[in-house]
Amino acid sequence: QQPVQSPQAVILREGEDAVINCSSSKALYSVHWYRQKHGEAPVFLMILLKGGEQKGHDKISASFNEKKQQSSLYLTASQLSYSGTYFCGTMNGSNSGYALNFGKGTSLLVTP
Amino acid sequence: DSGVTQTPKHLITATGQRVTLRCSPRSGDLSVYWYQQSLDQGLQFLIHYYNGEERAKGNILERFSAQQFPDLHSELNLSSLELGDSALYFCASSVWGGRDNEQFFGPGTRLTVL
Fold first, then answer.
1. Is the pLDDT of residue A54 over 70?
2. Count helices and strands in chain A by DSSP H and E runs
3. Which of A23, A47, A87, B84 has the most CB atoms within 10 Å of its CB?
4. Between chain A and chain B, how many beta carbons pairs sit less than 8 Å apart?
5. Are A87 and B43 an interchain contact pair (Cβ–Cβ within 8 Å)?
């Protein structure tokens, strides 16, 4: 049930763009994106719901393809503060208690 | 700051011991979730409570137990500790626990078992 994230790691220069993908083998109801810096708590970025629209704020946006059970996180004109590990958490229709199943994460490093 | 608080921040103990981790959810949130994060297993769901009742269990060992009290704070009890239990333990809270609810994570408790 664990979603698969790709790529595992990416290094960018400040100002470049990145896409992080999250896919599941099960039908998804929602996809939750988090960013975690080393030793800190995961910070909520956004949630995408089945039947919902693409979301975004500032230069970070995400989409959800229900047919393919995939979500993508788009980081535009990256800033140094975007560095960290990005996790997608998924909930499917059969989740009891609505716990998040997290992928293994994508490590993002933005360099000057 | 997510509004979720966890104590203690760090805990160092020996194998075989028992510890209690505490979590206070954001004001107004009724659901509390516990997650374990280790290098090899990533972020793993342990257990979910809603308004004092257990709603779901994940990969939680029998040596681990939790409860949510009437004031909505939650405690995670870990007993007969083993070296492999060393990890970051996060609690998260959400308003009511549905699939469209954002979960906000606390700062975590880093447990080291020696």
1. no
2. 0, 11
3. A87
4. 68
5. yes
